[in-house]
């Protein structure tokens, strides 16, 4: 029966890869772009999941276990996990499917995520996990606290989410898309959210039939993968392990079929961040009792205190991490220009300065220093190898320095950028004049500043 986990994971991997479904990006958008549009996709997952779980529970098909709320572990763990996913460049499920796209930096993050999660479960850090979780509030879920059915919370949440989705769909700017066959086009984020929620519902009875009373989960199974590899304990190979392996297989198949797989080697900074971020992810998720899937999609759908508080503190960690680490690179300092080679600046000087010296100003530095000029009013920005969201961050930074009507040509190989960059351009009044693939998992987009 555990092989059903492999099948569910494969479908989940396909949907997440084709939908570019990463909760890190959704939370990040709140802080970097002041936009709540993408986070609605997560609430679609939770709403569909909550309605489905409530129906299955009411029918007696499943009996979800209520998680005790350990406030210290959940708040600290959630915040640490949020910081970690910013450094690692993706949440738990996002790290799995990006690994399947060929990002070696995600492989590094995944290894350290698995090792640290395993250490927290049964290894050298288990004392920390047990100690922090010993502070127990006695609370479990909102329905249990108020003595009402889960339907009391699930229906209003679903209605509110539907209204929010309707609003954003109605106001969504039409963005440029790659000219590819329909089957190669990415899923709309909201469609992917609905499918992930449905997969989450299906996971419950299949997992329960295999002796695992839980739904989707990433951290525990990832730690079990590391445990099995290190110890050879076959009891660690359960439905959840099959789920994450299936997720990788499905995402790889989807990326390979659509030309979005290519091995991409990170630079030293990205690799270092992956090590630190992956380690923080494992520790944080183990403390919090789950990641953006286990807590952010499953426990929230059960309306547990653990799930909603963890999601809040993950978001706060993402916000703090974004403020600290997600900044555009400093512009290179131009070499000094000699007086003989300097270009005369026609900007008038103040009369006082002219009278006193009779001098003219020298323009000793180019106006645009991050992008390379390739023609009059046209610049090139190389973002090959830059992990998300840096292609968008740098694009935004350079475009801000251009004049209206000037163009920026961006080369990038971040899969998420195929959605985020043109969408950002549309929402900010810029025109995409060209957008095409330049090879496997590599693209070029030209944006004219509006």
Low-confidence stretches: 336-365
Strands in their spatial order, largest beta sheet: 3-4-5-7-6
Integer count of domains: 3
β-sheet strand percentage: 5-15%
Q: What is the approximate shape? A: globular
Helical content band: 55-70%
Number of strands: 7
Head-to-tail CA distance between termini: 56 Å
**Oligomeric state:** single chain
Question: What is the rounded Rg?
Answer: 24 Å
The number of helical runs is: 18
**How would you sum up the major sheet?**
5 strands, mixed
- Mean pLDDT equals 91
Task: Write the H/E string, N to C.
Answer: HHHHHHHHHHHHHHHEHEEEHEHEE
Structural class by secondary-structure content: alpha+beta
Question: How does this structure look, described?
Answer:
InterPro entries: Sulf_transp_TsuA/YedE, TusA-like, TusA-like_sf. Residues 381-405 form the UPF0033 domain. With 450 residues, this protein is an alpha+beta fold. The protein folds into 3 domains: 3-325, no CATH class; 333-365, no CATH class; 369-448, Translation Initiation Factor IF3. It has 18 helices and 7 strands. It has helices at 3-18, 23-32, 39-58, 71-88, 92-100, 104-121, 126-133, 142-146, 151-171, 189-209, 219-231, 239-257, 268-288, 294-299, 305-325, 351-357, 390-401, 417-427, and strands at residues 343-344, 362-363, 372-375, 378-383, 407-412, 431-439, 442-448. The strands form 2 sheets. A 5-stranded mixed sheet has the order 3-4-5-7-6, with helices on one face. α17 links the parallel β4 and β5. α3 (39-58) runs antiparallel to α9 and α3 runs parallel beside α10. The radius of gyration is 24 Å and the shape is globular.
